[in-house]
TrEMBL record:
Response regulatory domain span: 2-119
Lineage of origin: Bacteria, Bacillati, Bacillota, Bacilli, Lactobacillales
Gene3D superfamilies named among the record's database cross-references: 3.40.50.2300
GO BP term, pick one: phosphorelay signal transduction system
Protein name (Swiss-Prot/TrEMBL): Two-component system, response regulator YcbB
Coiled-coil region list: none
Amino acid sequence: MNFYILSNNSHDISTLQTIIESDFSNSIVGIDSTIENAYDDLLQLRVDVLLINCDEDAPTDGLKLIERLHSVHINPNIIMIGAARNQSIKEDAYRQGIDFYLEKPLNPIEVQHVTRLVASYRYLITKMAEISKITSSFATPLKQPQSQHRIQTERVYSLLRFLGIASEKGNTDIIRIIRVMIEQNVSFSNLDFERDLSLDPQNKKITFQRIRRAIRIGISNLAAMCNEYPENEILFEYANSLFEYQNVSIEIQKIRHNDVPRNQISIQHFFDGLLQESLSDSSK
């Protein structure tokens, strides 16, 4: 992640620099003390996370910088640092779309936690944008579009990778089944497993066991993301369409160490959701 620090406080800069660079995947691409210089830098640099240390003499300057950046469609994730007494500035900052407001004096543990959380969120959003780009750009330069079935299958592959189950044993079974559903344009309940997939009742039972194990990993991974980024609408769309949100909610409660019983996940709901998701971008 590329970080930029706007601050005129040398002690705070040193603290932030030490914490950010302790993670080898992070880089500080710029440090400055003036709004104008920071704005010029941000026009030229690729900045993932911007840290703005509010000047006590001009606490609203940071808000003006955010407004200017938004006007030219530069949207890094933003952490603002300011005095605890500046509650109106804090509220305005959140309305402007910042991710966190850290109060002075800085607590190194809190700074480390917040910078990691924001960096993780940025990484997730970037990956989701890449997936969206991959899955919505399938037309060839000669305007000879790929088979609709191929496009749908590729979207399913991307979604399974996103859920973190592409390497699970049940993934192959999931792909076999969803391909038939796509080719025949049928729901899960209308599949003929013996005719189309050569699965007798015993093999069907074994296959479903592998699929359930993979799905359980997928719902756990999705619940972790939903817990970490509760305002991300795409995650909750997947939660609803693939697993039914109440099941994801139970997984989230378990992450929070609440003792709640798990529901049985519906394989039918999962596959019908996959089929629907494979079609969701077909008009783009």
